[in-house]
Amino acid sequence: MYSENIPSIIEKKDMDEQIIIDKVLEREINLARKIQSQLLNGKTPVLIGAEVAGSSHPARLVGGDYYDFYPLINGKTRIVIGDVMGKGIPAAMLMILTRGAFRTAAASTAGPGETLTAMNKAIYEDLRTLKSFVTLFCADWDPVEGILTYANAGHNLPLFINGKANTIKEIPKVNGIMVGGLPNQVYKEESVRLEELDTIFLYTDGIIEARNKEGDQYKLDRLIQTLMENKVLSVGDIERYVIASVKQFAEGVPQKDDITMVLLRVNQKN
To answer: Mean of the pLDDT values across residues 81-94?
Structure first.
């Protein structure tokens, strides 16, 4: 009789141990989510002559998207948005690596092109070892000259919302391979002048690649339409309307990829 109960006792012990392991894992994942939400996405700065907003919505508890703001001693602000290959905890860990590389490079480089070059040099070997890469878009906002200078490492080109001409289009193209793609890369820069009420919309492809029940993608045209319909709102409200539009389009289909965006708008002069 005693020996017959041994298997059930062992099974119960195994179940209890698994429950403990699951609870520990859940606690650690929640901690990782808290760390990411508090550290990975930069504190929104107060800019002279402009307003800025950023938000990130991971597909899982943690994600691989990233945005950040870095104030420069010359009065400019360096902005970055990125998307690491993959999802979940592995992607989040790589994005922490990316954040450290950006902060270090931003403090010691003259422009966004040099920043991406330094970042690729710093983390290329690690990314290659892990068979991964990161797409990044980096830009410097100059409030005095009203110029946005930028460089691109394989990321989506931001959209330029012209406040007076009532048009939305991609900013002038500048090429650059994703960070971790090839060693010894030099990233070229381009620039665009922003006038009153002009807005730059930076984003990751989780927006335009969101799918509905039929498998159709949200796509760039729908994003442009949403931005056009809401372009007079505050940057924070535009963010909320974009998210609402994507969710309405998806019709309850679970989010497959992280969604991140940053908006920069030049204020109207008094």
So the answer is: 86
